[in-house]
Amino acid sequence: MRRYLVARLVQAGPILIGITLAAFVVLANMPGGPLAAYRADPSVRAEDLQRLERQLGLDRPIYVRYLIWLGNFLRGDWGYSIVTQRPALDMIGERFINTVYLIAVALGLTLAVAIPVGAYSAVRQYSLFDYTATGLAFMGLSLPTFWLGLLVILLFNVALRWLPAGGMFTIGAPFSLVDRVRYLVLPAATLAVVSAGFYTRYLRAAVLEVLGQDFVRTARAKGMAARRVMYRHVLKNAALPFVTVVALHLPELFTGAVVVETIFAWPGMGRLFWESALRIDYPVLMGIMTFTAMAVLGANLLADLLYGCLDPRIRYG
Amino acid sequence: MVEASAEAVEVSRPRSASGDAASTWKLAWRRFRRHRMAMAGAAVVGLFAGLAILAPWAIPYAPTAQDLERMYGVPSLRHPMGTDELGRDVLTRIAYGGRVSLTIGVLAMGVAIAVGTLIGAAGGYYGGLLDSVLMRLTDLMLIFPDLILLILLAGLFGTNFATIVAVIGAVRWMTVARLVRASVLSLKSADFIEAARALGASDVTVIVRHILPNSAGPIVVAATLGTAGAIIAESTLSYLGLGVQPPTATWGNMLQNAQDQFTTAPWTAVFPGLMIFLTVVSINYIGDGLRDALDPRTTVR
Question: Do A289 and B148 touch (CB under 8 A)?
Fold first, then answer.
């Protein structure tokens, strides 16, 4: 087990270098170069530009620049935002917490809906419930997140005036849990809808597959109560592939978070990435790219480890 | 040598491509017709595509024609979907926006199929180190959040039509690559492939004429579902301000534009989004129907 973990972590090194190198080369070769923002500004003189280039080391070959970036990155120096002049690591760190908060609640909501609905749908296959649930799941999958976000704002904020349309808390008010929750409901629910469709369909298929297995028939034949068969045998086995799918789907949730954070003015990492892309703030872009890559590889590893814990047939040597 | 390969193509034609292919596709069409939601989806997509294609002839307004006396017009007989902040007819812009959004969706998927086929075929056919490297790349791209790459590439390389097509295609080829690779692997040691090779057919001929036609089914399904994904990707980019720029209308940038006024003029946001949603649902149902039609072994999955 430990050897497997070490091997996987060692493998992750070259992959991360590959990703960051690719991102670095793309950013370095964009039209106008990393100083495009200054170049477009007529008040910046040519000699100032040259001085900046020397200062930032942009006159050196790209592999040297990459190695310098990598060295600094590993030491925790992720560069400074060209917009706010603040350390990129700090900016990303504070936004990251907010994104985790949003994604965790959305994932909780998703699973709370998808697991019972998906499982019941499979048990009552081709019933009215199943048709309704599968149909809704299919629609949920096809909903553009940003449109859904606008619709829920129209309904719950503009028409009903129940919930706030954007932000994380009432500015100026003292901390209160109720206030936090009120701001969280709409973005988290919006983010949950699309994934809920995906997970429901997946769990339904997984449960159906287990239901067709011999050991389920055996359990029933020996007179085991239907409920007990469901919990002891079916759900337990269907959970195996499901756990992997949830872990592998995490990056997709982050994609959704980018859009949801933008609509609901949620100060998260996704919104920061979007803002940085509009302003071509490359130290921040580079930092978030690398961070995302690490998170993705981490989620992948987590999926494999969880699978190993849950399924005694799998041994990592 | 040239003669031999030409002959190989002739000899094998009845086996792989056209011989029983006609009846295979006919059978598939018969199965597809029985899938009610897929047929409904095809009708909706056909209608929207028709509206987009015929827009310049069928619609009395121009997409950028402003009517400052009729700003924020409530949906009415003259303007069934209302007007926006410049008095432009929303239905007209939706029809013209459909031209851009649907074209980008289809072209981007074309790029994705081309890239995916190339990578999958090369990896599966030549194997070895090339295959490992390409498949590692595929896995990596598959788990990386695609919107992050889309935002980065569109932000850096600009937001004109061709760039958007290329950028979306560049992040959506992985499913096709895997499918193509799997079918190349399963077929490359089949007898009829050996025969074609023995007759002197080149690698490209073998792959294009003999292997790919046999894996057309799954690729068609993946391409259909992928088009729906590409349309969502395009509209998301446009919504984030990184797609085709106004005044050219796309469904996504109409929504972005509506962002500032949708609380007072909700129709400017509801209708473009509804078009995206209906198109994507329809295409997904078509994909579902095609999957059932092209692969009779498909079960519930």
Answer: yes
Cβ contacts of A299 on chain B, cutoff 8 Å: 143
For every residue of B140-164, DSSP letters joined together read: HHHHS-HHHHHHHHHHHH--SHHHH
Measured distance CA(B65)–CA(A133) in Å, rounded? 44
- Best B132, B138, B143, B227 member to test A by mutation, with max A CBs in 10 Å, is B143
Residues contacting A306, CB < 8 A, separation 6+: A243, A244, A247
A205–B240 C-beta distance less than 8 A: no
Q: Is cis: bond before A144, omega within 30 of 0?
A: no
- Tens-place pLDDT, residues B70-127: 777 777 777 777 777 777 888 888 888 899 999 999 999 999 999 999 999 999 999 8
Please say whether the beta carbons of B160 and A270 come within 8 A: no
User: Where does chain A have alpha helices with state H?
Assistant: 2-28, 36-39, 46-55, 62-74, 88-123, 128-142, 145-152, 177-211, 214-221, 226-228, 236-263, 269-279, 282-310
List b or e across A41-72, with b for residues whose CB sees 16 or more CB atoms inside 10 angstroms. Answer: eeeeeeeebeeebeeeebeeeeeebbeebbee
Q: Which of A130, A141, A150, A279 to mutate to test the interface with B (most CBs of B within 10 A)?
A: A150
Share of chain B above pLDDT 90, in %: 29
The residue to which tokens 């962002």 are assigned: B259
| Binary contact (B152, A285; C-beta < 8 A) | yes
Q: Tens of pLDDT along A107-129?
A: 999 999 999 999 999 988 889 99
Distance CA A143, CA A128 (A): 23
Distance CA A229, CA A211 (A): 10
Tell whether the model's pLDDT for residue B301 goes beyond 60.
no
Alpha helices for A143-176 (secondary structure H):
145-152
Q: Cβ separation of A144 and B280 shorter than 8 Å?
A: yes
Tokens encoding A10: 């060692």
User: Domain coordinates of chain A in residue numbers?
Assistant: 2-74, 96-310
Name the residue type at position A240: L
Other residues' Cβ atoms within 10 Å of the Cβ of residue B162: 10
**Domain spanning A96-310: CATH 1.10.20.10:** no
- Tokens of residue B70, six digits: 């009729």
List of residues 6+ apart from B178 with CB closer than 8 A = B120, B138
Those residues whose C-beta lies under 8 Å from the C-beta of residue A311, and which sit 6 or more positions away, are: A240
ipTM above 0.85 for this complex: no
- Chain Cα centroid distance, residue B182: 21
- Return d(Cα A284, Cα B275) in angstroms, integer: 35
Coil, helix or strand at residue A93: helix
Count of CB atoms within 10 A of residue B39's CB? 15
Residue with the bigger pLDDT between A30 and A192: it is A192
